[in-house]
Structures are given as structure tokens and as C-alpha cells.
Model the fold of this input.
Amino acid sequence: MRNFIGKKGWVLSAAALIILILAPPTEAGSKINLTNVNQDDMNSMARELGLASSAIPLAPSEPLGLVLGLDVGLGVSVADIHDEKTYWHSTIEGGNPKPVLILPQISVRKGIPLGIDLGATYAPTVLGSNISLVGGEVKWSFIKGSMLTPALALRVNYHRALGASDFSLQTVSTDLSISKGLGPIKPYTGVGMSFIFFNPDTANLKKTEPRELKGYAGVRIKLMLIQIVPEIDLARDFLIYSLKVGLIL
Done:
């Protein structure tokens, strides 16, 4: 059901984040089962699951700096999957996929010398199941930006799924971003590649390694030490809405 676009995507992201903060989900959700899946269906599902699990920048290009240089946030990503397609019905146990994948995440970033930021991300659940994600990133702001010039940065991310019983999933993402703002509002945009490595633990299926060009845009709104960061990511026909709130020191 491809109706989570525009305002609906942002409303759903905000609602999901509020729910995660006030009442984290405790019930198990959809579970991927590859027992009776053909190769084409697995390949299509793995592409969308990999894109949803790959890194979301949720930060402008400027480095955090060395004074404290700390960014701690709680976020959520809402991926608009093609739940009407047969590959989701055949790979989700029970054949009744939800229209979106919701991935909560906790992120920490720290500035170090030379315009470099190091970060780590943890997503406690994927598909509302026992599958979680861990990841790390390195961002280099080779142009730090000023009052007159924008900042430019290169970023590399690695994410790995944990807890899956019949497959392994890893993603590597690289991107180039630019940002320029005035005062508390700092918009940013970028383009990059996501490399997905999906390896099923099933005799009749082979691994798949799709790669996707992805663009994104967002804005960081800073209120004293509080930041709010909405972002949208697009890879061909696949949309991800994300929202982060947190502290920046």
C-alpha cells in the first residue's frame, strides 16, 4: 500500500518516535521466513530490507568540533515498502506484511581532530522482531564551512543485522554531502551509494549483493542544546522518512 507519502510520512515518523519514547513496543512483529521463497522474491525483499537497514545521515556536513563535540540522539526511520508485492507476502511469516518498516535507533557521534566525526548507531528492533542493527560511521568534513561558504563532507557507514536465524545482512554506505545554514536552521543534502550484502542460510537460495544510488535531504533545527532533525531518503522508488531528536554539545 503505497500511500505513506508527503505529510503522512512525516506524521507517521513523529508519532512512531513519540510512541518509542513513551512506550517502547514489547510484542514481536513480522518475521522473515525463507523456507519456501524463490530466488527472485528473496532478491527483491533483500534490496528493500537492506535499504531500510542502511545508514541514515541525520546530520549536516559541518564537523562537531573539539570543545565537547558530542551529538546524542533518539530517532526513528519509517521505510515505505512495496507491501503489495508477492515478494513481501512470500517472505513474511503468515503472508501479511505491514505497509512500512519502522526502525527506532539510538545514535552517538563525537568530534575528533582534522574535521572528523566518529559515530555509532544501535537499532533495537527491525520489523518489530528480535533482529537488531549495530553500526558505525566515519565522517570527514574536508571543507568545514563558514558564514559565507558551505561545508562539504564524505561519510562511510557500516551496519550489521544481529539475531537473524536464517540469513545475514550487512550494508556499507558512502556519501558526499553539503550543508549551509544561518542561525539555528541548517539544511543539508547529499548523494551516495548503498552496498547490500544479504546471505541466506538456506540450501536452495544464493546470496545477493545489490547496490543502490541514494539521495537525501534534511534540516537540523537547533534550540539551545536541543536538536530536531527531519530527513527524507530516496533510492529510485523507495522512500524513507526519518526524524531525530537529541542533544548537541
